[in-house]
Amino acid sequence: MERKEILKQFKKDKDNLINILHALQNNNPQNYLDLGNLKEVAIYLNITYSHVYGVASYYTMFSLKPRGKYIVRVCNSPVCNMEKSTEIIKEIKDLLLIDEDETTNDKKFTLELSECLGRCDTAPGMMINEDVIGNLNTENLKSIFEKYK
Ligand code: FES
Questions:
Q1: Distance separating alpha carbons of residues 20 and 56, to the nearest angstrom
Q2: Most Cβ neighbours (<10 Å): which of 19, 63, 68, 126?
Q3: For residue 139, what are the domain limits?
Q4: How many CA atoms lie within 13 A of 118 on its CB side?
Q5: Do 75 and 141 share a structural domain?
Q6: 120 lines ligand 1 (CB under 6 A)
Q7: Does the beta carbon of 79 lie inside 6 Å of ligand 1?
Q8: CA trace torsion 98, 99, 100, 105 (10° rounding)
Q9: Are 34 and 80 members of one domain?
């Protein structure tokens, strides 16, 4: 969908800034906001570019650089740490051959670490885009990632 069509879905109200940024990022197959997006949002909402840039760069859910089709967010908070999430993170890095904040060569996966996902009862956990996946262990990771290939 064209950028202008997305903007038209929202009233010209600065309270819509975050929702507009989400819609633009979700519309981008590389899962990020380019600077052209930010400039156009500033014009559309009649607010400063620096305000839009500040919001887009403050929230970790937004990215200003291209990412993979799937964003893998592995919980790195205390409960998951106690359930060996550091081993899970290392295993995912080995499986995808990338480090944190990197994207696989085929542009499929970007690995990010995350704060608590609110699913401590199934720790350790991660999200792949909108899917929350718990009870991770070094044995089930490979089959989980196979589903997204
Ligand atoms: S600490 Fe990992 S989901 Fe809560």
A1: 11
A2: 126
A3: 70-146
A4: 2
A5: yes
A6: yes
A7: yes
A8: -30
A9: no
Q: Is the CB of 136 under 6 A from ligand 1?
A: no
Of the pLDDT bands very low, low, confident and very high (cuts 50, 70, 90), residue 142 is very high
pLDDT at 1 over 90: no
Q: What is the pLDDT of residues 70-101, one digit of tens each?
A: 999 999 999 999 999 999 999 999 999 999 99
The residue among 80, 90, 57 whose CA lies nearest residue 132 is 80
The verdict on 134 and 74 lying in the same domain is yes
Residue 77, token pair as written in the block? 């908070």
Q: Which residue type sits at 115?
A: E
Contact (Cβ atoms closer than 8 angstroms) between residue 72 and residue 127: yes
CA distance linking residue 39 with residue 49, whole number of Å? 6
Q: Which tokens is 137 given?
A: 């262990």
Task: Kindly tell me if the per-residue pLDDT of 60 is higher than 90.
Answer: no
Distance CA 64, CA 56 (A): 8
77 and 141, same domain (yes or no):
yes
Task: For ligand 1, pick from 87, 112, 117 the residue to mutate: most ligand atoms within 8 Å of CB.
Answer: 117
